[in-house]
Amino acid sequence: MSDWKDRLNVVYSTNPDFKYEKEGEEEQDTLPKEKQALRISLDKRNRKGKAVTLITGFIGTTEDMEALGKLLKVKCGVGGSAKDGEIIIQGDFRNKILELLQKEGYAKARII
């Protein structure tokens, strides 16, 4: 799909290094671990009765969030995903994930 509709207000630029900026695509830098306020909860909604541990509140790049999700999945020995600002771990691992996050340096992580 072409992005010509996103550039309708741009008339002309003589700068050879000019890059079109799309609204809403700015990704934040990852906050330090000790400043991340992660919330750990159990979620059963829209999952056919299966329980998943949901980690929300991560502020940073998707690569860093996916790396944290991978670490948690490996340590818990289960599957899951990291997308849309949430890390989903299959099963009820709230206490184990809280311990793992605190060992990693996420001091503000808490169970809700």
TrEMBL record:
Keywords of this protein's UniProt record, alphabetized? Answer: Protein biosynthesis, Translation regulation
InterPro entries referenced in this protein's UniProt entry, alphabetically: DENR/SUI1_TIF, SUI1, SUI1_arc_bac, SUI1_dom_sf
| CDD domains per record | YciH_like (cd11567)
Gene3D superfamilies noted in UniProt = SUI1-like domain
A GO MF annotation of the entry reads: translation initiation factor activity
Domain spans labelled SUI1: 45-105
User: Which PROSITE patterns does the protein's record reference?
Assistant: SUI1
State the Gene Ontology BP annotations: formation of translation preinitiation complex; regulation of translation; translation reinitiation
Q: Which domain of life is it from?
A: Bacteria
Q: Which family does it belong to?
A: Belongs to the SUI1 family.
| Name of the molecule in the record | SUI1 domain-containing protein
